[in-house]
């Protein structure tokens, strides 16, 4: 049997019709459709695909990175075209390249960028259904910026961590936090070495409470200090969240 | 019976799952779902909804304008909220206001703006499926700009007119034509007093032939001069086309 090739694959997906990345007894999940497409492409070989992280139900990806080992040999351009032919319309493959043997989409990742999209205004948007969090009241953008910039640094994010989070430490480094106004949308762009479960969505939910005037920006200092999830705001809906890109050491993304 | 109110309604829709605006024996159409929602909202009153123009299958709207007369009396904010509650997820109501009696969405329109979205690059985009024309080869943007600007003016657009077009004259005035690069997308923005059937899509199809190097920009002068549809390029897919907004005299949009 020839030695297996380690593959690095970049995926885009519309999370609206998925129950998240991970295989589970109920509901359609991205991992299953990717493994199914690969098995067809590789002549029936069963592969296990590892993602950089497990996106939740409704969450989208502009550049989710996955890795898997396969014995069947395929040229990269055929892997790319084959995946795009076999994946459902709401998942697409942007890149497929052989990777060094020690590359692992999850364990090799050194950073991630997320975008959260809020639509501000009355009514609803047909074209952006399932792709943003609609907020019907005006938001105080400068108060939100004031709150969010307090989260840049190496901090204890316990107050923004979901109940079921299995990470051993609640300390994370966030090195970029930006709030952009794009027409009637607010984009919250976050970059960090890694994130706790629901961390971005809990930060956004709390930032919206600040934007609505329910809390002052200094509340974010208190949330960091108090380390108590029950003090922070609601979890923003998955539909507004996009995994934009995942960082790896340059030596691991060259094949 | 009280006199009917004339209504002006602005709609956004995702055209992907529609067979266009107009009622027809086969396929789901936007006119039907809007008339159905209105009938439910107005206690069973049957209304006929006129749009500014009949968008084709797959074509989207960011601001389609419609008008209709209804006897049932509803406050505008209830009309807006009611339509958004009763319309399917892929159609939304952005505005609903009473209009002067002589306002007609089609006959009162004085101009329209369309956007055509091309995605340039390999593979496909899951999040933009049904919302752009994917072109897999590089396009010469400056050649396309050179071609497109030749269409600004009052010209005979016979070469860009669909076979079934019922307009009495092929002469139209295009006053704006812009090509914008937005990340991996090209946006062709067109504004004019009115458009022939498939005119924007036929212009875009021909512009892509120029972008691919199959034709020089001066070909557009020839197309205008020769007045022969068989000489122009293919019709670009409906999925990339967005009706952005419709213009009316200010006196007709105040109630």
Task: Report on this structure.
2 copies of one chain form a homodimer. Chain A has 255 residues and is of the alpha+beta class. The first copy, chain A, is 22% helix and 29% strand. Chain A has 2 domains: 104 residues, 2-Layer Sandwich (Alpha-Beta Plaits), CATH 3.30.70; 135 residues, 2-Layer Sandwich (Alpha-Beta Plaits). In chain A, strands 1, 2, 3, 4, 5, 6, 7, 8, 9 and 10 form a 10-stranded mixed beta sheet that branches. In chain A, α1 packs across α2. The radius of gyration of chain A is 19 Å and the shape is globular.
Topology:
2 copies of one chain form a homodimer.
Chain A: E1 5-13, H1 30-41, E2 50-51, E3 60-70, H2 76-86, E4 91-98, E5 111-120, E6 133-135, H3 141-148, E7 153-156, E8 171-182, E9 185-192, H4 199-211, H5 219-226, E10 241-247, H6 250-253
Parallel strand pairs in A: 3-10, 5-6
Antiparallel strand pairs in A: 1-3, 1-4, 2-3, 5-9, 5-10, 7-8, 8-9
Helix pairs in contact in A: 1-2, 3-4
* Main sheet specs of chain A: 10 strands, mixed
Tell me what the CATH architecture of the largest domain in chain A is.
Answer: 2-Layer Sandwich
CATH class assignment of the largest domain in chain A: Alpha Beta
Task: Name the average pLDDT of chain A.
Answer: 95
DSSP summary, beta strand count of chain A: 10
Binned, the helix content of chain A reads 10-25%
Order of helices and strands of chain A: EHEEHEEEHEEEHHEH
**Strand-residue fraction of chain A?**
25-35%
Distance between the termini of chain A: 21 Å
CATH topology of the largest domain in chain A: Alpha-Beta Plaits
Which oligomeric state applies? Answer: homodimer
Number of domains of chain A: 2
Rg for CA atoms of chain A: 19 Å
Low-confidence regions of chain A: none
CATH superfamily of the largest domain in chain A: Pseudouridine synthase I, catalytic domain, C-terminal subdomain
Shape of chain A: globular
Computed structural class of chain A:
alpha+beta
Largest interface: A-B, 22 and 22 residues
Q: If helices are DSSP runs of H or I spanning 4 or more residues, what is the number of helices of chain A?
A: 6
């Amino acid at each position: 049997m020839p030695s297996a090739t380690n593959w690095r694959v970049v995926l885009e997906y519309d999370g609206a019709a998925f129950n998240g990345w991970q295989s589970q007894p109920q509901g359609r999940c991205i991992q299953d459709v990717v493994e199914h497409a690969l098995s067809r492409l590789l002549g029936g070989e069963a592969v296990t695909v590892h993602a950089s992280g497990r996106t939740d139900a409704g969450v989208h990806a502009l550049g989710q990175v996955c890795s898997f080992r396969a014995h069947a040999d395929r040229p990269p351009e055929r892997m790319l075209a084959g995946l795009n032919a076999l994946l459902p319309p709401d998942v697409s493959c942007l890149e497929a390249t052989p990777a060094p043997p020690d590359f692992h989409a999850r364990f090799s990742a050194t950073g991630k960028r997320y975008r959260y999209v809020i639509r501000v205004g009355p009514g609803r948007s047909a074209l952006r259904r399932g792709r943003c969090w609609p907020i019907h009241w005006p938001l105080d953008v400068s108060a939100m910026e004031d709150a969010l910039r307090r989260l840049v640094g190496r901090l204890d994010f316990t107050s923004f961590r979901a109940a079921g989070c299995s990470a051993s430490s609640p300390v994370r480094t966030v090195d970029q936090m930006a709030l952009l106004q794009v027409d009637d949308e607010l984009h919250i762009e976050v970059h960090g070495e890694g994130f706790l479960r629901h961390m971005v969505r809990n930060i956004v939910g709390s930032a919206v409470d600040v934007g609505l005037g329910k809390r002052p920006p200094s509340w974010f200092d208190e949330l960091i200090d108090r380390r108590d999830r029950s003090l922070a705001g609601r979890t923003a809906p998955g539909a507004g969240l996009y995994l934009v890109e995942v960082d790896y050491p340059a030596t691991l993304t060259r094949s």
